[in-house]
Design goal:
By secondary structure, the protein is α/β, with parallel strands linked by helices. It is about 45% helix and about 10% strand. It is globular, with a radius of gyration of 19 Å.
């Protein structure tokens, strides 16, 4: 870390982090199905996790994933609770519990029928990504070769309108450029980039352009800055927490303090490789030594790391290159608050970045 704090600043950072509602707007499902990862979140002072629960495996796989999370929450009801509203999140913090809000990163879970959105809303889903990095029936993901020209399909437009009606917020973090702008035009509610950084700093199609960031902000939305190494720095091996802070500074300067937050998107792949273990309920191991991505059938995250490694890195790099230095997992989240203090942000602004902005956008969506 390039920043050093005085004793007074350290005390201030600890107070802000403790008093703020701290939200990770993109937690993967292992965070709430593995006690070790869940405890990392607790030790980092996280109050609420937006958990990616299903999405790519159709409606049946999504319901199954939701069931796995609900079982974990039942077992740990003294420290964690599913939430459906902003008031639930505030109440859970007062009770010393971590809030878990259901989200997905891929509308492929709808199986071509947006009527399933009503089922997902009843299950507690409040955020849904339209596409993952590949294309689906709605539009193109950010990894596709046609991402700059192929926008929303008619089905995609219908899904956005139905999500608006139900109060499920539209997440465009993994969408291609044309799909991103189309969805922003179609949505009547704030649009989110739950976990995306600034393309002007790190030139990968997973990051967002200035035009997209400005359009998102005009909807009242928020983007979550992540520590995923290639999204922080063009040289993914040079990513640091200072680089993460640079992305936050850039968004604040471009569209204001109200439109930036935090999203971890921390994978468990490196720990799996180190420990040689499988977490229950995760399917085939996803380390470089075990995943075989078919160029004809695709294999989710692995497929576009083969087709377009410049976007996030290779499969091997996913399992060997850690997240930004000094920000490698959720237990390091207090370092983000320390960095914001070092860069001169006031208490109110830091609280907005840590979670208040996410709460505000949920409220605008009727949550």
């Amino acid at each position: 870390m390039n920043f050093k704090l005085s004793e007074e600043q350290e005390d201030r950072a600890k107070r802000i982090h403790k008093d703020s509602i701290v939200i990770d707007a993109t937690a993967l499902i292992h965070t709430v199905t593995s006690e070790r990862w869940f405890n990392q979140a607790r030790s980092g002072g996280v109050d609420a996790l937006w958990v990616t629960t299903g999405g790519s495996a159709g409606i049946a796989g999504t319901v199954r994933a939701a069931s796995n999370v609900l079982r974990f929450l039942e077992k740990h009801k003294d420290v964690a609770v599913q939430v459906r509203t902003t008031e639930d999140i505030i109440k859970a913090k007062k009770e010393g519990k971590i809030s878990v809000l259901f989200a997905t990163q891929n509308a492929a879970c709808l199986d071509g029928d947006f009527a399933y959105l009503s089922v997902m809303e009843r299950l507690g889903y409040r955020v849904m990504g339209l596409t993952y990095s590949e294309s689906n029936m709605l539009g193109d993901g950010c990894g596709e070769r046609t991402r700059e020209v192929r926008g929303l399909s008619y089905f995609g437009v219908d899904v956005v309108h139905e999500m608006n009606r139900l109060g499920i917020l539209v997440d465009l973090a993994h969408c291609g450029d044309a799909t991103t702008m189309d969805a922003i035009k179609e949505s009547k509610l704030p649009c989110l980039f739950t976990h995306a950084n600034v393309r002007s700093i790190s030139d990968t199609s997973r990051n967002k352009t200035d035009e997209q960031i400005q359009a998102m902000a005009e909807t009242g939305g928020v983007m979550g800055i992540t520590a995923l190494p290639r999204m922080v720095n063009n040289d993914l091996r040079a990513a640091t927490i200072d680089g993460v802070l640079d992305h936050i500074d850039y968004v604040v300067d471009l569209v204001g303090i109200d439109h930036v937050g935090f999203a971890g998107d921390y994978t468990d792949s490196i720990e799996k490789v180190k420990l040689g273990e499988m977490l229950p309920g995760h399917g085939p191991a996803n380390s470089a030594s075990t995943v075989k991505a078919s160029p004809t059938t695709g294999a989710g995250w692995a497929y576009w790391r083969i087709k377009q490694p410049s976007m996030l890195g290779t499969i091997e790099e996913r399992d060997t290159v850690p997240y930004a230095e000094d920000f490698e997992d959720l237990s390091k989240l207090p370092n983000l608050t320390r960095g914001l203090v070092a860069r001169g942000y006031d208490d109110e602004s830091i609280a907005k970045i840590l979670g208040e902005n996410w709460l505000r956008v949920l409220k605008k969506g009727g949550v």
